[in-house]
Write a structure and sequence with these properties.
alpha+beta; TIM Barrel; Urease, subunit C, domain 1; six-stranded mixed sheet
Length: about 675
């Protein structure tokens, strides 16, 4: 869609005359958003939803009018082609754009090792404590990060520090491709906390973390008293300059909400008790088991920034057993059918045609032909005219085999009389794979379902729920939200948890989260409802600046694979940075809806051993998306593949995410039906 422009003829003539001058003018370093008209868009996914035109000027929505009305002069036109317009999403809690530093532990002057030792303690042991850190000071939403967010329909993110007792302050920024100063909406939104602290030494336990937090807030209270006394010119020491203590005072005064990381219900209850002790205003981030304290969260109006971290799905053991039973029944029917068919084949023995017919006698179903006795084995048991006729064709009458095999009766007899299993067969019989008891698997499935449905239970209890990516990718967040909708979370409420809900909690609902005149021109155009499988963003407007994306026809066909696309099989993967002797091999199965399951075998860079990990993914049109999550020691490593399937191979970009960073490389996967490598789990 190339924007066109509506302008009076005189203005057009002026522009034509001024073109040489405009071409020679320098490029503006601070471009202003142009007036745009998004025509032929719908505001809902209802089939009878009327077409509308959204008029944008100076980065805001000027008006929303019927599509039949003419576009004002001077506006650039973007044809929405009947797409559905939604407010651009807001990710209210993400690590994107903010690398949290490790706090400086010692703030005091070093103790003299030559002086007398006094019984005292450090005044400022600040392990895990840095509330004065500001995400805006390190904000780095580079081109790749912001583009990935825009492609998923996100127009703003709260870039948040994390992983420390008091990690610092988050910053709200848009996903526009511009300098930091141009994208920051609010440089100081929330404070962020966790029962964690990096580095060695005290504290390193939950008891120590709580004690450290209590000590800091007591110090902050004392700092406030000393400042008040100093301002009143009362006796006492001058208060120290300590930016962290000043921020501690701001938290105690309720100037900013404290967002507390907590996945378990016990951790949430600890934060609530701690907040009561110091009179803090809090929210919860994570919230995996928050449903267990839903009534308390609703009563206290504590919002939950849900990261939808459910872990790997525990398979339903009852469904697996049912499938095994159905498969066994089908195989039994097929076996029975084959036996019956073979018996009919045995009738051809009357013609004395081939030894294959004679072999059929082994099934004992050739009684009609009189070829074999009760054993139906060889002509030695009961020779018939048919056997003699068969012998005339050049086969050995003793065996009734054909000249096609050239096997003798003696060889056949040796093979059939041998009852001792080979070494290979013995190894196969001894090989086994441990399977957890059915009760254990059922319990794991139940626990996983509780985690998945936590958001549903919270919504039912009236808790304010916001959907956030945390440390995941925005695509993973949308996938999980769609899963929630499929399992009962109201679709309208899910959209609100990504738009108006975050805007209200962040305090920017006068500017974001709605499609209303006067609100920010932060809009996404979708091929279908954004929470329907296969929905794609065709255009997103951020701060009044449009970004359009190419969507192929097969990508807009309901999220299913295009005709002729089937990734079932074995694939050898070659990446630009892969130096292993044996390349990674993916063994995949794809169902009719495009769901991918299987394994990835590769050589570990840590110990050079061959590993095999589970693969999950999806194929939509020609787009292929796969992911592998694995644990290596204390760390979690994620390998993602995003590519296109063409000419019976797929290629794209492979990303390895690990603690402290990520590495990307181009890859190409080619089909290899005869090649496989064994790995160790």
């Amino acid at each position: 869609m190339i924007p066109s422009i509506v302008c009076p003829s005189l203005a057009g003539a002026f522009l034509a005359l001024a073109a040489p001058v405009l071409a020679a003018s320098p490029q503006s370093t601070h471009p202003r958003p142009q007036p745009y008209a998004l025509t032929n868009v719908r505001l809902s996914d209802a089939e009878d939803a009327p077409a509308k035109t959204i008029l944008l000027r100076e980065g805001r929505i000027e008006a929303i009018v019927d599509a039949s009305e003419s576009v004002p002069p001077g506006m650039r036109i973007i044809d929405g082609q009947g797409r559905i317009a939604f407010p651009a999403f807001i990710d209210a809690y993400t690590a994107a754009g903010c690398e949290t530093p490790e706090p400086e532990v010692t703030r005091d002057k070093p103790v003299s090792t030559t002086g007398n030792v006094l019984v005292d303690m450090r005044q400022a042991n600040r392990k895990g404590i840095q509330p004065s850190f500001r995400a805006v000071d390190v904000l780095a939403l580079d081109g790749k990060v912001s583009e990935g967010l825009r492609k998923m329909g996100f127009g703003a993110v709260l870039s948040s520090p994390r992983g420390q007792l008091l990690a610092g302050r988050s910053a709200l920024a848009t996903t526009r491709d511009a300098a930091t100063r141009d994208v920051v909406v609010d440089p100081d939104v929330f404070h962020h906390a966790a029962f964690r602290a990096s580095g060695g030494g005290y504290p390193s336990t939950l008891m120590g973390y709580l004690a450290q937090l209590r000590q800091f807030f007591r110090d902050a209270q004392r700092h406030g008293v000393m400042k008040a006394r100093f301002e009143a010119r009362k006796p006492g020491a001058r208060p120290v300059y300590d930016a962290d203590l000043d921020e501690g005072l701001a938290i105690l005064a309720g100037e900013r909400r404290l967002v507390c990381e907590a996945q378990t219900s016990r951790a949430i209850e600890r934060w609530i008790r701690f907040a009561d002790e110091f009179g803090l205003t809090i929210a919860i981030s994570g919230g995996r088991d928050a449903w267990k304290v839903a009534d308390t969260l609703a009563e206290r109006d504590i919002p939950v920034f849900m990261t939808l971290d459910w872990g790997d799905e525990a398979k339903d053991p009852d469904a697996e057993e049912e499938k095994k039973g159905e498969k066994g029944a089908e195989e039994g029917e097929e076996s029975s059918g084959e036996t019956g068919e073979t018996g009919e084949t045995g009738e051809t023995g009357e013609t004395g045609e081939t030894g294959e017919t004679g072999e059929t006698g082994e099934t004992g179903e050739t009684g009609e032909t009189g070829e074999t006795g009760e054993t139906g084995e060889t002509g030695e048991t009961e020779e018939t005219e048919e056997t003699e006729e068969t012998g005339e064709t050049g086969e050995t009458g003793e065996t009734g085999e054909t000249g096609e095999t050239g096997e003798t009766g003696e060889k056949k007899a040796e093979q059939e009389s041998s009852t001792e299993p080979s070494d290979e067969a013995a190894d196969e019989e001894l090989s086994w794979e441990y399977e957890e008891p059915l009760g254990v698997r059922r319990e794991k499935r139940r626990e996983w379902l509780e985690k998945r449905d936590s958001a549903i239970r919270l919504h039912e209890a009236g808790v304010r729920v916001l959907f956030c990516s945390g440390t995941d990718k925005p695509a993973d967040l949308l996938k999980n939200v769609r899963t929630l909708v499929e399992n009962g979370f109201p679709k309208a409420a899910a959209v609100a948890a990504l738009t108006s809900g975050p805007a209200e909690v962040l305090g920017v609902d006068r500017h974001f989260g709605w499609l209303k005149p006067g609100h920010s021109a932060s809009i996404a155009l979708w091929t279908k409802h954004p929470l329907d499988e296969g929905a794609k963003v065709t255009c997103v407007v951020v701060d009044g600046f449009p970004y359009e994306f190419e969507v192929k026809e097969d990508d807009d066909a309901g999220g299913k694979p295009a005709d002729g696309v089937d990734l079932t099989g074995s694939w050898v993967i070659a990446a630009d940075d892969d130096e292993a002797d044996e390349p990674p091999v993916a063994t995949l199965e794809m169902d009719e809806d495009g769901k991918l399951t299987g394994t990835l075998s590769f050589t570990s860079s840590m110990d050079e051993t061959r590993r095999t990990e589970d693969v999950t993914g999806h194929v939509s049109g020609h787009d292929v998306s796969m992911k592998v999550e694995m644990t290596m020691g204390e760390f979690t490593v994620t390998i993602s593949f995003e590519g296109k399937f063409e000419d019976d191979e797929f290629s794209g970009e492979r990303t390895v995410e690990f603690p402290g960073g990520e590495r990307s490389a181009k890859f190409t996967a080619t089909r290899s039906p005869d090649r496989s490598f064994e790995g160790v789990r």
